[in-house]
Design brief:
By secondary structure, the chain is an alpha/beta fold. The protein has one domain: Purple Acid Phosphatase, chain A, domain 2 (4-Layer Sandwich). The chain has six helices and 13 strands. α1 packs parallel to α2. The two termini are 22 Å apart. Bound molecules: fe (ii) ion. The site of fe (ii) ion has 6 residues, from loops.
Amino acid sequence: MQLNLLAIGDVVAESGLAYLTRSLRTIRREEQIDFVVCNGENASGVGITPQQAQDLLDCGVDVVTLGNHTWGKIRITDLLDESPYLLRPANFSRRVPGRGWGIYDGPGGLRIGVMNLIGRVSMDPNPDNPFTTADTILRKMQADVILVDFHAEATSEKLAMGWYLDGRVSAVWGTHTHVPTADARILPKGTGYITDLGMTGPADSVLGVQPQLSINRFLGGLPRRYQSAEGPCKIEGAVFTIDTQKKGCVQVRQRFWQEDGRKGSQP
Ligand SMILES: [Fe+2]
């Protein structure tokens, strides 16, 4: 049996959320997608509200993952405890609410495991070691397919995680930098991999933010509150095709959609 798993890059702002919620049913049908994981930690710019998380789940996302902005909208804490479909990084301290991994029902009775981890290079150094956390979770996770969203800044840390988990999980992808990398591949022991999926939000922006606000910061101007950019949105992600007999990934395809049709898909 082959499964198509769509991983969607960080949803940024209400406009990115709206474009995704309008588009995902069609994308699922056209791409014959069986399961969707989406990083949602920037749906509010910084953080995600319970309603935004519910909107993602209602539009066809199976599991929402988060990252360094998990607590940006602190009222998400109750839903993190209540919903198994909303994950925060598993290597956060045990003192915080929620969970970092889960096992979900896939087609044909398959058990699909999803793990959310956060990196420590050029980020908050306090989370537990994501590599050894993955080891601990994999010892407990009884699943037919295992997917890992590694929310991290450094390409080196993400690549190292891909190689570390090669052959032990079905796919590893990076999130957080909002810029897609051109390195989608299958690692030697069968794990599908990409360093960063990119983002889902305003196309004419600096990582989702109005360009002039970002430029002002780099010019050394007075600090101004970041605001999300306007204009057409894009969706960036990757489709991992998993062969459940071979227990590995047989194809990875980066996928892009844009609201005004300026950019097509990449094979
Ligand atoms: Fe992030």
